[in-house]
Amino acid sequence: MRITSANAFEASIDSLQLRQQKLSETQKQLTSGKRVLHASDDPTAAARAERALATVSRTEASQRALDASRNSMTLTESALGDANDLLQQIRETMVSAGNASYSDSERASLANKIAGLRNQLLSVANRNDGAGSYLFGGQASSQVPFVDTTSGVQYRGISGDVKVASQEALPLTVDGAGAWTQGRTGNGVFETRPVSGANSGNAWIDSGRITNPSLITGSTYTVQFSVSGGTTTYTVLQDGNVTGLAGVPYTSGKAIEIDGQSFTINGSPADGDQFETVPATPTLNVFDTLDRTIAELKTPLRSGGQITQGVQRSLRDLDQSMNSLQSLRAAVGETLNLADSAESRNADLKLYGQSERSNAEDLDMVQAISDFQNQQSGYDAALKTYSLVQKMSLFQYLNGS
Amino acid sequence: MSTSAVMSLGVRAMFADYAALQTTSNNIANANVAGYSRQQVSLETAKGQYTGAGFFGKGVNVTTVTRSYDQFLTREAANSKALAATDKARLDQLNLLEQVFPTGESGIGYAAGQFLNSMVDLASNPQDASTRQVVLSRASDLSMRFNSAAGQLDTLQAGVTSDLQNSVKSVNELAKNIANVNDKIAAVIGAGHAPNDLLDERDRLVSRLSELVQVTTLPAEDGTLAVFIAGGQRLVLGSQASALQVNPDPSDASRSTIAIVDNGIGRNLSTDLMTGGTIAGLLNFQNNDLVDARNMLGQMAAAIAGRINEQQSFGLDLRSPPGAGGALFSIGAPRALSNENNLKDSAGNFVTNVTLTTTDPTQLRASDYSLQADPLSPGNYTLTRLSDGTVTTIASGDVVDGMRIDISPAAAADDRFLLQPVGRAANGISRVIDDPRGLAAASPVTATVGASNTGTATVGSLRVTSSSIDPSLTATVTFNSSTGNYDWQLVDASNNLVSNGSSTWVPGQPISINGFDLTLNGVPANGDVFTVAKTLYPASNNGNALAMAAMRDETLVGRTLNSSGQLSGGNTITDAYAAAMADVGVRVQSAESTATTSAAVAAQTEQQRAGQAGVNLDEEAAHLIQFQQAYQAAAKVLQVAQSIFDTLLQTAAG
Question: Which among A166, B25, B391, B557 has the fewest CB atoms less than 10 Å away?
């Protein structure tokens, strides 16, 4: 095969340029540390790196959402702690108000103390996160949730909660209605109380307890006392109908049991005194309890039985409210735990995304350096052979003939 | 027998050897000229003279100077050069196209992801003005990236047009030169000797022309070469040359096509017939790769903008009073282009106009469509999706692939239309809300759980699914059994019953009433009540922001309607960008390997042609020695003839 001189030069130069181009590409890869600079370097790896980048950005957004929820819940948890402290103080005051040796003016000063604590409790319930969002507002967190009206403190928020945009169910607000204004009255199943207008104030009824939950009927039971000839007897009516307990002799402090309920009446009931138990409803408002307590303590000239009954009722309702707030605090604590484990999952996902991206597009330095050296020595060899071969020509040997 | 015989033999030998030396020197001088075919002197023995003692040779004649030329190898070299030029032109343009779809943080997919991620922050702080401002800035960043990418595509198109114009100018120059050379060759060929240099010149011109556009050549009897392009169009015939020009494509005026000028009128050449050369590579890139890239970009822009706008309309913004959110983005409208040759009225306007309206942006395809009247069923039209060639028959007003096509009045049989539903979407996308209060983060309705519910059901999610929702109506869902049967009723603001009904709740399936979907977690008991009422405090509600953040996982690009009427398939926005970027990457990769292969083939065929026709300096050096010796020998013959003559003279003088 003939070799043309001109063509031989061109072919050699083309080959040298090809080697030089490959060398400069490897150099670019080494300088940037990336194997995939353009999608055409490795299209599937580029697409994988793109998806991994999207994952990493999402985990950063999720982390921000998580932090927002955690801030809110931390503030809520500490607010509930403060509320518990205030209610503890109120409870102690109430217990001391049951002291029979106190006079009306002393009880009135206790009432003032409770009034101050009650206002502090209201401001705790209306606490916000410093950015205009009320912690207990539920789905209406931009409005003050508890409003002090002439008919008591009412909940103006919307029940439910606002969640952050995350796969975990992390809330930003808490439903205040359930704990503060919708506790269960009485002892949770039934409420004991004197029938108004049929109470002489010489006897009082305690909160009662459940002896057999399967016998609870949900009816209203009325205990009617009749005193005749020095003997006090009582009759229990169920929804107005006579039951098996009729004309039972009464002993102060002994339990009266009917249909799984058991309660005790103390003191000396007058003739015609009535007490009743009604099923519990979710209407227990802690502020109503406190307002009622303050009003009672300020009322002068009450009988010993009335004072005891009032203190009993208030303590029972206060304990119920404290329980509700305590279980809400436990739930909030749980969401904080959830936020912690979500954070560690998020961090893992971010690490996964980053390593996936790095695997797809980063350069294997060792491999690249070895390739570069190969190409370098190849280029060197090509240059040397070019210089040797192109020097040779017949004209060199034809001198002077 | 005469002394002059030896002398004339010597003279003729010297002349022949001198001619050979001259030709060899010419070869050496032109060794590095591209396209030069080495020339050789062809010598022949002169006829012998008859004498009584036998035939005596009369010496050597120079018949002609020939050039080393193989028609087949030359043609092969020109053709493979044409193919190599096509692939290289397309590769160069594709390398530029690849920069429109960068990887990583500078890409559009990243910007779209960041925009939707900012919705997460909006959901955490719906009433915070600075969070809303961040969402608006990210939206603006996204639309500007789309604009810049679309602008780069427009620049590439302009570049293609200008490259075509330059190439066409060169083609015209070369054609004229070939015609001139044809003329000169025809004038001298009658003299009987081949005009080697002119022939070389013509071959050189044809080779350069092949790099621009692939040609077929046909030698004529008068020595001229006829040059044809594009499957039979005459470019050069004899000493006449036609000219090419660049015209706007009749179906889409922004694209260019090549026309051949015939009697002053340009006739468009079909791009299928132009198979090689830079011009073919540029046309292929313009009509396939550039169109596909533009459509992929537009599909993403239309899908995300359309879906965000729809979700905005489902939510409440922070105006006073709050209203349904307005569109956040405006996009370039879909357009239908009438072919230049369609029927026009007397004023020069098209008789038939086609209008496109987008009905579902998530079903738009990344493709242009061609529309023409169906010859087999009048009143219907044939719609061809150009990306995959699917053909459907439609009537005016039909909805196909997320767009409604209206044709009025009915088109003539020869009318052709090019439909571009997403072609300009990325050029025209821009953010149109500047007030942060305009973002609709709140849901118009809020769900609450009844206070005395005894079951474990809570509200999982509440999504608005249609803009037909009437937020002033309150919906109450009451469960009347423990197996999930419920009654629902809708009352208006004055508590009048609007409508009611019953249904059964299936765990995991939403309850759909009045244009919203309510999903419950847990198990509702008999008597449980759920209420969905108007949102009273939009500043604290983040329902719509949650829905917009959920779009990160929604397959909102390129969904298809399957046979049972369900939407399926499609990509999320970040996956769609990754797919588009990878698609362009694959094109570049395959173009690179094709270009490498065709360049290698071109080099190989050129080497073969040169191997046959080129100059090897060592060979010429050997020839120089050879003919120099022969010349010296011939000179010696003359010297001997002269001394013989002298001897004769001396003898005769005696």
Answer: B391
Cβ pairs A/B, distance under 8 A: 195
Measuring CA to CA, which residue among B523, B331, B287, B327 is closest to residue B429? B331
Tell me, yes or no, if A224 comes closer than 8 A to chain B by beta carbon.
Answer: no
Residue by residue, DSSP assigns B244-258 as EEEEE-SS-TTSEEE
DSSP string across B295-342: HHHHHHHHHHHHHHHHHHHHSB-SSSS--B---SEE-PPPEEEEPTTS
What is the predicted pLDDT for the residue at B601?
96
CB neighbours (10 Å) of residue B594?
17
Tokens of B547: 């829905």
Closest approach of A127 to chain B, Cα-based (Å): 16
For chain A, the distance separating the N- and C-terminal CA atoms, rounded to the nearest angstrom, is 29
Query: Tokens representing B268?
Result: 């468009």
Q: pTM here?
A: 0.89
Element (H or E) spanning A91, and its range? helix A43-97
Pairing of β B529-534 and β B445-449: antiparallel
**Which stretches of B339-457 are assigned E, i.e. beta strand?**
353-358, 369-373, 380-385, 390-395, 399-400, 403-408, 416-420, 430-431, 445-449
Mean pLDDT of chain B: 92
Tell me if B258 sits within 8 A of B168, measured CB to CB.
Answer: yes
A46 interaction partners in chain B (CB closer than 8 Å): 103, 578, 581-582, 585
Quick check: helix, strand or coil at residue B22?
A: helix
Residue stretches of chain B with pLDDT short of 70: 1-3, 654
CA B298 – CA B426 distance, rounded (Å): 5
Q: Which letter does DSSP use for residue B38 in this model?
A: P
pLDDT tens per residue across span A259-290: 888 999 888 888 888 898 999 888 889 999 99
Of B536, B583, B603, the CB nearest to A158: B536
Structure tokens at B582: 């990878």
| CA distances (Å), origin A71, targets A85, A98, A137, B367, B546 | 21, 41, 16, 49, 19
Q: How far is CA B567 from CA A115, B12, B296, B562, B577, in A?
A: 63, 94, 20, 6, 21
Query: Is the confidence at residue A183, as pLDDT, over 60?
Result: yes
ipTM: 0.85
